[in-house]
Design brief:
This protein is mainly α and 327 residues long. The chain has one domain. Helix content is 70%, strand content 0%.
């Protein structure tokens, strides 16, 4: 059960899409067909999270809830998410007063910063809910997928009927529950030839739905239609799963070694880059709405600072480990 390097490449592409989402105007995104790749970044990340965590559980033979919910494992995962995030919170608190913006220690945790500010909250929830989804999948992955679809659909409908405040809606991982479940499900069916037609049909229906949503202004009875995540609901998540399948199948066959390796490195650093771009665009938004005229600067700034942030944290953790070892 060897880690697939291509997964890092797909994550590398996804983090580039995240930066593009926050740089380009909505008109530009539509004009270049962005709903079919750029706007799929977060669903892709969460499908990969479901897939990768399932692979990890399988590798460690974690089957019981006691195994899956060992406090030390949960703490390690929380630490990996919160350590880079807390430094970003402190940075925001330091900068906020200078640019006249609200910034507190709860700023990101409450998802109020925009530019993906909800993602950290969702990843924290994922730590506690994903083991249970995997536990269900070990018993019947098809049933787990169906239950997740119905719960995700119910959450969208309930949020719409209850008129849930946007800042609360964006925080709940339930709006991406089906995408996460698809990643878990795909791990178990990736060698099953009967599953591929299901994925293809689901992706085709998702594409038709995305066309109606983004190019014909169709409004469904879902909460997401009144938010910046229009069309990101359980009726579309088979499409990013299909993109993930295509990436795993065909990217390794391409002869682009340097580019492939570069994207793979970005993929490993994607969480830190994601955090950096949140702070970067939060600051930039004080002066300009969209920055597509300086897209190269946006990309260079987020990627270079994000990569440096990743290596700085790695250096800190190695130094800390050495000190603990010697003491």
């Amino acid at each position: 059960m060897v880690y697939n390097r291509t997964i890092d490449v797909i994550k590398g592409l996804a983090i580039l899409f995240v930066i593009l989402i926050h740089s380009l105007t909505n008109q530009t995104v539509l004009a270049i067909g962005g709903p079919f790749y750029i706007l799929q970044a977060v669903p892709l990340f969460l499908i990969i999270a479901g897939f990768n965590n399932t692979m990890s559980y399988e590798r460690h033979h974690s089957e019981t809830l006691i195994d899956l919910y060992q406090p030390i494992l949960l703490f390690k995962k929380l630490n990996r998410i919160l350590l880079p995030a807390v430094l970003a919170y402190l940075c925001q608190m330091a900068i906020g007063s200078f640019i006249g913006k609200e910034a507190s220690i709860f700023f990101y945790l409450l998802g109020r910063g925009g530019f993906g500010g909800f993602f950290i909250s969702i990843m924290i929830q994922l730590i506690f809910f994903l083991p249970f989804l995997y536990y269900l999948a070990r018993r019947n992955h098809h049933l787990m997928l169906l239950i997740s679809f119905l719960v995700n659909l119910g959450f969208e409908l309930a949020s719409d009927s209850l008129d849930l405040p946007p800042f609360l809606y964006r925080l709940f991982f339930f709006r991406y529950l089906f995408a996460i479940a698809l990643g878990i499900w795909f791990y178990f069916v990736q060698e099953d030839k009967k599953a591929l037609p299901i994925i293809r049909i689901g992706a085709l229906l998702s594409i038709v739905y995305l066309i109606f949503v983004h190019y014909f202004d169709y409004n469904g009875p879902f909460y997401s239609f009144d938010t910046a995540w229009k069309g990101q609901d359980p009726l579309t998540f088979f499409y990013p799963l299909f993109l993930f399948y295509l990436g795993l199948t065909y990217l390794p066959k391409l002869r682009w070694n340097r580019l492939y390796e570069g994207l793979a490195r970005l993929g490993k650093q994607s969480y830190h880059i994601f955090i950096v771009q949140m702070v970067y665009f939060w600051v930039i938004a004080s002066y300009i709405d969209k920055t597509q005229s300086v897209l190269i600067i946006d990309l260079a700034s987020c990627l270079i600072i994000g990569s440096a942030y990743y290596h700085l944290e790695g250096y800190y953790l190695r130094h800390k480990k050495r000190n603990i070892k010697f003491h």
